[in-house]
Amino acid sequence: MKNITYTISVYAENNVGLLNRISAIFLKRHINLESFSTSASEIPDVFRFVIVVNTDADRVRKIVQQIEKQVDVIKAFYHTDEETIFQENALYKVKSSSLFEERHIQNIIKSSHATIVTVSPEFFVIELTGFREETEQLRKDLTPYGLLQFVRSGRISVTKAKMGISEILNKFKNTK
Amino acid sequence: MKIKTKKKSMTNHDNSIRISGAEAVIRCLLEEGADLVYGYPGGAIMPIYDELYKYQDKLHHVLTRHEQGAAHSAQGFARTSGKVGVAMATSGPGATNLVTGIADAQIDSTPMVCITGQVASHLLGSDAFQETDIIGISTPVTKWNYQITKAIEIPEIMAKAFYIARTGRPGPVLIDITKDAQFDSLDFSYKKCTGIRSYTPTAKLCNKSIEEALELINQAKKPFVVWGQGVILGNAESELKTFLEKSGIPAAWTILGLSALPTNHPMNRGMVGMHGNYAPNILTNECDLLIAIGMRFDDRVTGDLNTYAKQAKIIHLELDPAEVNKNVVVDVALISDCKISLQELNKKIKTKVYPNWIKCFDDLDKIEYEKVIKYDLHPKKEGLTMGESIEMINKYSKNDAIIVTDVGQHQMVACRYAKFSQTKSNVTSGGLGTMGFALPAAIGAKMGAPRREVVAVIGDGGYQMTIQELGTIFQQQIAVKIVVLNNDFLGMVRQWQQLFFDKRYASTEMVNPDFVTIAKGFRIKAKRVEKRDELETAISEMINSKEPYFLEICVEKEDNVFPMIPSGASVSDIRLE
Question: B562 lies in a domain?
């Protein structure tokens, strides 16, 4: 079976130990996480984990079964890139002098559709949201001009299909 | 150091009372019907022990000699009583000593609640005396765990702990309670947990799958059932019996499914797996329909997955959705409690017989008898065998003892030859293979089923891993019968060394102490048997004893357990010699 990129979405209670529990599922199977991000979700008090892994269809199915089995997990899904809308966010810190001395850098920023977040006499920070290839290309382009710092967030994504978490929670409420 | 709890109007129910967190823990246990706790005191759990002292007429605490003993005793209790076992320990080493038992309970789906003391919450993360991150350590081996840092959390979390431990696929839950939460007070009232929104213990059975399963069963010419512990955990023994009798399908068990159906039931065709019976293993690869009930296709059952039952359609009755299509891809999955699934199947299943197919089992059974069983049970040689020892226990316990086993050769032999008349009678460490399990588990097994005869069958290796629990047995006067089958070897490892490592017996020979003297040192009646003509009297004396009794049986040193499926081989490559 071929390895491809899967985005795993987990809806869960905000439990202190859950992050540990979920990462242990990957650790036990020696699977590397490409990225991992957590945030609030559209439902109050429900957290969302977005995990990116590079693995095959059989393994991702089993991993998601194990994640969903955890008591504090409401529901877990996995999707291919085609099934999701996803983005990453990157920050680039560059010497301010290069912005004025190297004319070309302004063209790079313009053509990449990056935005300038802050400018100070010593440095300026630009931000780019997009696909991995786009943020990566900008990193490569800026490197010759003295990239002071670079950081990229984990993937965040929403699915094209409906998740139905509210329905699950309402159903529970109604049977109580 | 008291922390003010929320205003009375917010937390106070009409029937609430102001008590300490420690007392709340005890009251929660009593509310959950837990009147028996195994444990070991220490600094961080002293407030709870202080309350145990005050409540000793209502809650019996068994002081084990090591926290591992407490965990295994709680497991043994859970396995024979069907209730949640409770173990307690202090922070740090007390908590880490529980971990083996917790891991064992996790892999064998045993309902257990472990309560550990923890350093005061202001010391958390400071590497305080006896501080250990037991939540982090126990996470991969618990069904759920939680650290309580405020007294007010105790009732709700304890209710959740018991609910999670016993519902769905049962398992161990660990609750870590900081010392300040034990000292602080709260307005106590108790409400049992009846549901958690993120947790579905039992899925609703899909009707379409039932129809598909019935269709496969109707078409099958050579159907075969393999059941596991799910039948026992789901209280589905009578449904299984009805299903087998009506459908006429021969059935075999995994090691943890043992005793769900009486040994002498005509549909019971023995054990599958590495040291299982010949017929059910061979015929796994000849059946045209495999019906797996409450079992998880463990590698010790399946051998090489690439050659496992490839010719057969597979129906899987399983409670835990994560077990479906995990090791073996199935044709129809009935995801629910197997009691419910079997009831549905039983409503519509046709009455059938498969005489030719049954004859295949009979023929292979004969081969196994001639090549293996005959020599195990009626040996011609001078040395005693493990098999004849078990057979003698059957005779004097009238095939109705609870047999608790450890791990290794004696375990395989006991599971092969012990005879059972009722369910919940086999207590063994299946998934984790924990040596040292049997002696403390037998304590719990006896306390969970006090009217029954409990015989712990243990090897000389595993026995010495938790031998200190003889102290618990004497102090509590628990009338367990302890049989050590002594071959002066770590027999199973030695067998593998003989077969697969060219007889290089690396660190498997044991120079053993005088076990009888040790037992007598613990003031337990003890006897040693070295010759065949002494065996019967000794076992009769042991079974008739009203007190705990230790019997050492010196068996043949280098006997092997057969049949055997070599590790990684196919079930149909099972060896008889």
Answer: no
Which candidate in B67, B237, B318, B453 is catalytic? B67
Number of domains in chain B: 3
Would you say A26 and A33 are in contact if contact means Cβ atoms under 8 Å apart?
A: yes
Residue B52 pLDDT greater than 70, yes or no: yes
Distance in angstroms (rounded) separating the CA atoms of residues B25 and B46? 12
> Which residues of A sit within 8 Å Cβ distance of B?
12-13, 16-17, 20-21, 24, 28, 61-62, 65-66, 68-69, 71-74, 168-169, 172-173, 175-176
Q: Cβ contact (<8 Å) for A71 and B164?
A: yes
- Kindly tell me the burial class for residue A34, based on how many C-beta atoms sit within 10 Å of its own C-beta (0-12, 13-18, 19 or more): middle
Q: What does the DSSP assignment read for A102-137?
A: -HHHHHHHHHHT-EEEEE-SSEEEEEEEE-HHHHHH
**Is the CB of B199 less than 8 angstroms away from the CB of A71?**
yes
Calpha distance B275→B273 (Å, rounded) = 6
* Active-site annotation holds for B179: yes
Q: Is residue B97 part of a domain?
A: yes
First-to-last alpha carbon distance for chain B, in angstroms, is 69
The three-state secondary structure class of B496 is helix
Please give, rounded to a whole number of angstroms, the shortest distance from the CA of B143 to a CA of chain A.
7
Is B339 found in the same domain as B466? Answer: no
Report the chain A residue with the minimal C-alpha distance to residue B139: A21
Q: Residues 6 or more apart from B421 whose CB is under 8 A from it? A: B262, B263, B398, B399, B400
- Global pTM reads 0.95
Confidence band for B8, pLDDT divided at 50, 70 and 90: very low
Separation CA B250–CA B317 (nearest Å)? 16
**Catalytic status, residue B419:** no
Report residue B559 as tokens: 């006997």
Region B390-401: mean pLDDT is: 98
